[in-house]
Amino acid sequence: MKKKLLIVAGANGFLGRSLIENYNKKGTYIIGLTRNQILDPRYYNHKNIFLKTYQHSKHSLGIPEIIDDLNLKSLSSITIVNAAGPAHKKKTYKDMYNDGIIRFTEIIANDSLKINANLINISSISARESVNNNANRIKEYGLAKFKAEKLLDEVFRNNKGNAISLRFPAVWGIGAPGSFAIIQKAINKKLPLPITSIRAKRAYINIKSVTGIIYNLDKICQEHSFDKHLSFEVSDGDFTLLEIAEMISEEMQEKLRHFTISEYLIKITLKVLMPTLYLQIFEELSICNTEYKTFLEYYKLKQVK
User: Fold this and answer.
1) Count of domains for the chain
2) Which domain range does residue 222 map to?
3) Whole-structure pTM over 0.85, yes or no?
4) Residue 97 banded pLDDT, cuts 50, 70, 90
């Protein structure tokens, strides 16, 4: 019986680990690619999961060779999900993101074409916002993601193959990093959070929604050839930080404690001391899912016909 193959670049990350867990339940062959060997112990010695480290050359991650070495044959389809983050070894954010995002995306696109794989590229909503952001790190990150998408436009305009970029806002869920990790830690330690007065709403998305969206798009790519690169912005909706913290505490089955501090004081403090976190909480960001839903409905109708 033929099996699907999922290849996850960035298998150590929050999204990579969640994808592996989700697809493993469906009996799919999975190759998890990482830059180092710090791998989740849950995935060792599993018959369908193969964990590989890579050191990319100028033109390849060596994915075709990895598949050959594993002797995976009679595959019904191959999907590559590029969820890798940039390696933090460069002198400037610009250098780090140029190499770790733009160049890496080009290399993984080359490998996907070699093995006739569908490519799902995890982009960021900051690709849309990059021109307006003042924080240097977010600006360079968003610009690199935007350039990587434009590169995929060019690559798949000239070659047959399916490629989709997904621009997600902040992804929350149990085990999420960054500010979400701080919220989880506070809930675990029963510490109150000063978030009651924060009224700003932003788009967020839960990790379960992310893996579900990727799975649905993967199925469409397997069944239909559109031979180009498409980009979609997707979210679960707009929420305050308090609403997100309440949902996290519900998933953790723990009580959320919170209190009121002047929103103005929080804004000033974060803007001076933690500008990136300030942008993540207070800058307006809404996402319309219409384009993604239209795409999904079109191919579902096409399948019925």
Assistant:
1) 2
2) 3-175+203-237+286-304
3) yes
4) confident
